[in-house]
Amino acid sequence: LSSVILYCLTRDIARYHGLGERESDYSALTAGLLIQVIPLFSAYGIVNTIDSPLIFLWSLSLALLWYAYRGWETGGQRLLLWAGLGLSVGIGFLVKYTMVFFVLSAFLFFISHKGRRGILKRPGPWLAVLISVLCTLPVIIWNAEHNWVTFLHTAGQAHLSAGIRITPLRFLEFLASQLGVITPVVFVAMILSVFSLKKRWRDGDFLLWLMLPTLVFFLMKSLQGKVQANWALPAYISGIVALGIYTVLSWSIMGKARKALLASGFMLAFVVTIVAHYPMSIGIPVKMDPSSRLRGWEALGSEVSRLATGMEKPYFIFSDRYQVTSELAFYVKGHPVTYCVNRGRRMSQYDIWPGFYDFSGYNAIFVRTGDDPMPADMKRYFERYEKRTLVVREGDQVLRKYSIFLCYGFKGMEERMPVKF
């Protein structure tokens, strides 16, 4: 769906600025294909995280903003488009708070040129703001009732407690990660594209403003602390549109060397995506394969299901890692409620949901990654326990090891509150 949206948006922007039908179609096709082959985006076509709907909602919001803005330029109100934009941005905020940068980027676009500032005197933008704010109210109300825990979690992820500091290595690490997940040539070409269109067209800075604030913020943030490679993802959606148009506009005047460089950049992105989708086909070691984290869980679920049949009821299943806990809930037969004990990890949703602390007398299955002994701080909560080890293999490689503890006679446990977010 995101590809379709970007195809339509790119085609409309190109046609609006005077490109012919063929050039507009080629630009749109290039943008629609790019989002499928750039490694950072293609990954979310097969892995369902909050970034998958974020890509769709940011793309949809970008298109609605463009159509609403274009309607204002021609003297129309198009309140339905503004209402749709507000709904799209509001739902996007519910998906991931990064959507706030879309609002900031749109505002900067409007005020950056005196000819556009009049749009803020019309009801459309404020209707969009009102609807998006209404969408965010459930988050605000829930957080107010739960000590603003989501914002504390976000602040913890952003390392705000570390204060103001300069970490050049983190900056270089983040920059390198962007070159890796976008690929170097495509990354540089995107930056050049948004600036090129800004110079070429009167409102060619639309894509620039909807890209740079997000990217610049996270580049600056990386000077203060670690920034994950996917955090700046929405910024590149505008870059994809710009690159699609720029490629078609400039192809006929490019020299052979530039054409070869750009084509090789696109091909590299495609190859990296193929390798990421089929790492086993070229023999990448498990330790170097990020996608290995997605595999092996079904075997764990089957083994825990088998062991559970021999456990005297009532019993519960838990882990000390929320990733393992969630996989157990999905893959264990019957999809049981699973729990995650806090042994010093950062806060997760399992610390808000009901726990197992008062299940005195229950038996339990405790699952940990790795071949490790029962943690000393957990032994005292059970009468006795037995250890089982599961080794999951892919071919001749060990994918992962699990320690599964069959625990008997739970004595109850004090509720453990997280100490970090």
Mean pLDDT: 88
Helix count, per DSSP?
Answer: 17
Q: Which structural class should the secondary elements be placed in? A: alpha/beta
Number of strands: 5
Percent range of helical residues? 40-55%
Low-confidence stretches: none
Largest sheet, in brief, is: 5 strands, mixed
Give structural attributes.
about 425 residues; alpha/beta; 2 domains; 5-stranded mixed β-sheet; 17 helices
Can you walk through the features of this model?
The protein has 421 residues and is an alpha/beta fold. It starts with a helix and ends in an 11-residue tail after the last strand. Helix content is 55%, strand content 10%. It has a five-stranded mixed β-sheet, covered by helices on one side. Helix 1 (2-16) packs parallel to helix 4 (51-73). It has two domains: 2-277, no CATH class; 292-410.
Quick description:
The protein is an alpha/beta fold. The chain has helices at 2-16, 21-37, 39-42, 51-73, 79-95, 100-111, 123-145, 149-157, 168-182, 184-200, 206-209, 212-221, 235-251, 256-277, 297-308, 322-331, 376-379, and strands at 315-319, 338-340, 363-369, 382-394, 397-410.
